[in-house]
Structures are given as structure tokens and as C-alpha cells.
Amino acid sequence: MTFSIFPNYVHQPHFLSFNSDSPTLKKPLLARSSNGQNPSSDGSLLVKDNKPPFPGKPEADVVVIGSGIGGLCCAGLLARYQQDVLVLESHDLPGGAAHSFEIKGYKFDSGPSLFSGFQSRGPQANPLAQVLDALGESVPCVSYDSWMVYVPEGDFLSRIGPTEFYKDLEQYAGRNAVQEWKKLLDAILPLSSAAMALPPLSIRGDFGVLSTAAARYAPSLLKSFAQMGPKGALGATKLLRPFSEIVDSLELKDPFIRNWVDLLAFLLAGVKSNGILSAEMIYMFAEWYKPGCSLEYPLHGTGAIVDALVRGLEKCGGRLSLRSHVEEIVVENNRATGVKLRSGQFIRAKKAVISNASMWDTSNLLPKEVLPKSYLDTINTTPQCESFMHLHLGFDAECIQEDLGIHHIVVNDWGRGVDADQNVVLISVPSVLSPDLAPPGKHVLHAYTPGTEPFALWEGLDRRSAEYKQLKVERSEVMWKAVERALGPGFSREKCEVKLVGTPLTHQRFLRRNRGTYGPAIEAGKNSFPGHSSPISQLYCCGDSTFPGIGVPAVAASGAIVANSLVSVSQHSQLLDAIGI
């Protein structure tokens, strides 16, 4: 599993190059422009109109807008299905919210940093791992089993696994919390086999799903239900309901347990336990609290994941064009026939256009007259998660504790809720596991407030203004204090060699995200994430605005579902056979 908010179900959620008052981007990490050009020295996204903006002919079977994880998974699988695929990316680096960048020898993650399940195989593997397997690619990882937690009750090292967390609970929350946690695990872990019995890669958006999913995996589903018994099978009916309903049905009252469950849900999908599907949470519990489990960080940073997806795409004959900004999706007779670039170039799509942009940004690429009012109303009334503050630092490791862990979570006040602004800060120091991300003797750090920064505070501000710069100072202070708490007295903000502050306007500008949003704030039980088709024939969507939702595994699955839907059931079944699921 991967959380998108640390950011896997690692959104996925996230950005970068930075504003004009930040140091310039020196060179890209891992990513190369497929047209052989180097990124601009200032990280600019501007398309240069005096050259061919993409490799090869100006057409493809399928044109994919955006090279986020969802878009690359979709494009890679389509290429493996022997479709002619062209991915158009506005940025000068691929990866969307998950891309990496380098400044002064420090290689930064821009988004996801907490992962698990990369080394697993078979039906229950992480969807992203299944896609990489299908593309013949892998991502070497370092395994670890804990993260540091700083909460009002105290600071402790939270260990994953079936028993270690009990020790932390007893010390910081008491015996009652231990009993309630055991009661929760006893109730939900047996449900994990049902929650994980249907591989996301088996799903497609037509009646062919009866063959690729329902018939193919019916025996394993029935076996799971039989093993759970009547009580467990009844509990499995709650998989598509909010996880809070399971918590409430167990009559869990301990404040720490309920707060901890809300925190896990928020890290996973940007909503608390009353807004997340039970299936998602149970999948996560199975990844973290069963024997033999571990967390994983990709060697060479999260850019290695993007690089592997790009390799797989190009190896299968797909094309990626960077700095190719799509201005409009061209619609003829209610059918998406291609896209127009900012340069004015028309790229024809013979079979489909797939947007990896958010629902709001996708609708802005379409002529308003072609969209039904009901469709636009649904998009415009879908609530949004808020945006992010980011802090990227490069600093000397000399005075920092040698046993520093990679991940740290700071919760300032449970009473405000984990979704309150300036209340939760996530910190990643990936150089402790992958030293090549920083110069010798140095560390690289990424801290952020996860989808809780109100865009309204920043809306309309001039990025060059004194007001904007002052607001950056004020709103980044909570991250600085969290970093100082996590790294201890040996850390000095004044001595950092690289200091970068990203804001919601950074997200909006460089990720092309409407209002810099983390994604749709869709609560389980009240609504559901949209499917992948659209009112426009041959126009499909993947990514965090579509089912199954926010987070790296979710967007990888969404890309796979769209790719599967565009090929025959026979081709789809052959792929499942090839990767052993």
C-alpha cells in the first residue's frame, strides 16, 4: 500500500518547482524530456513554440493528459496492450504530484513518501506493484517498521505489526486502549481476505468485468466468506460503508483509539474515519498489523517509481512528451477526437482521450457547450479537500542524532481534529534510508501540512508581493516548529543550505490543480467517487477524481481500470494470467 498523504493510499496527492523567491531548479532527478530537451533553469512550465513539442507523429490511438501516477499506469498498460499511446505533460518533469526534483545536490520528494506492499505479488499485492510487474519493472526498496509520533499524550516510536503497538498503547493511553485496539483488530483482520480478494487490476468499466473479475475470483471470494463464518460474512457487508460504523458497532470509546483511527484514515484518504470506506482501512490494517509486515521506501527516492513507470511505458512503445501543455480537449459530434496544445498544435486521438487531471481541471479543458448541465453541476458542487503547505530542507547531518527515523508525525491538538488547519504536520527524512538523496554528510527533509491549508487565505495574492512572502513566513512556522521538535537541539533552521516553502498557489500553478486541492472530499456512505467514463464519447478520466479515490494505490488502480476498459476481455485476461493474478 502507499499513502498519498504521507501523502499512498501514498495522493495522491505533491508539487514542484517553486516560486520566484526560491532557489532555482538545478537539474531534474531521473526524468528526461522525451524530446531530448533539458528543463528550463527556472523550472518554467512554458511551452516553447518554435520546436516540435513531442516525439513522433501528431497522433496516437490514445492520448493521455498528465503524467501523474494514474496517467502513467494507464498509459503503460495500454502500451503493453500494444496500443499507440502518447502522454502529454505540462511540467518539465514527469510524475505529477509524485515527481522528484534536485537543488544543490539535494534530491527532494514532492509528494508521497510512505509506502508498503511494493515487494508483494499475487492478487493481494499493491495495485501499483501489479502495474510495475505487468510492465516488467521493479523498484528496489529499503524496509523498516516504525515511525515517530508526537501527540499530546507524549512522543513515542510507533511500530507496525500485530503486537508491538500494544506496548505503546499501554504506556501512553492505558490498559483500556489496549483492550479496545485488540477488539478492533480481532473484528477487522478476518475481513481483510474479503477486502483484498478482488484485485483492482481485474476490474474494467464494462460487462466484461463479469469475466475478468466476478467469475475469475468468485471461488476465492466464496472461500473468504466461508472462512469468516456467518458473523464475519455479515461484517463483510460493511466493506463499502464508512469505517466509523465498524468502530461504533464495536462500541469503542477510548479517546486515543478513536483519535488514532481518525489519524490513520486521514493519512490514507484525506478524510476521517466517518468518510473513508471500510475496505480501504481494512486493507491498510492488513498491511500494517499482520505478522511479517513492513513499510518500504524506494531507493533513490519516489522519483524511482516515476522513472520505472516511464521506462515501462517507453519499453512497450509508448511516448512521453514533457512541456506539452494541453489547452483544450477537442470535441467533434460529441466525441473526443484529440487535444490542442498551447502552441496551437492539434494532436489526434484515434480511439480515446484520457484525462489524468482533476474533475475541475478536466471540465475546464472542454467547451462548456458540450457538457450537460447536470454533469457540470455535479462537478461544481463536489466538495474539495484543502491544499498544502510544504517545507523542503537540505542541511548538515553532523549534529543530528544518528538513529533518526525516516518518518515523523506531529499532532498538536486532538480536540481540533486531524483535519484542522495547522494541526498535523508530516515529516519525511528519506536520506536516512537512501543516503544518495543528499550530498555526503547531509540530510534532505520534506515537511507538509496534509491537505489542510485553506486556499481562501491565499486566493488572489500576488506571489511577488510582500503580503504573500509574509504569509509564507507565518503559515510555515508550524512546520518549522514540528521539524525542530523531531530533529532535536542539533538542528538549526539558520544553517540549512536549502530552504523551500511551497504554498497552495505553488500547487495551483505547477500541478495545474484547481485551487491547489488535494482532491475531492467525498465521504463514504454519503457519495461515491465518479466512474471513469464521461458524457463525451471516447473521453475517459483516471486519477484521484475517480474511483477508487485518493492515494497512490487508488490512482494506480484507476489508471489500470481505464486501460483495461479500452481493450478486449481476452487481452485483459491474458494480462492477468501473465502477472499471476
Automatic annotation (TrEMBL):
One of its GO terms (biological process) is carotenoid metabolic process. Coiled coil: none annotated. It holds the Pfam family Amino_oxidase. GO terms for molecular function: oxidoreductase activity. Transmembrane segments: none annotated. Residues 27-51 are annotated as: Disordered. Residues 69-564 form the Amine oxidase domain. Residues 32-43 have a biased composition (Polar residues). PANTHER family: FAD_NAD(P)-BINDING OXIDOREDUCTASE FAMILY PROTEIN, PTHR46313. This is Amine oxidase domain-containing protein.
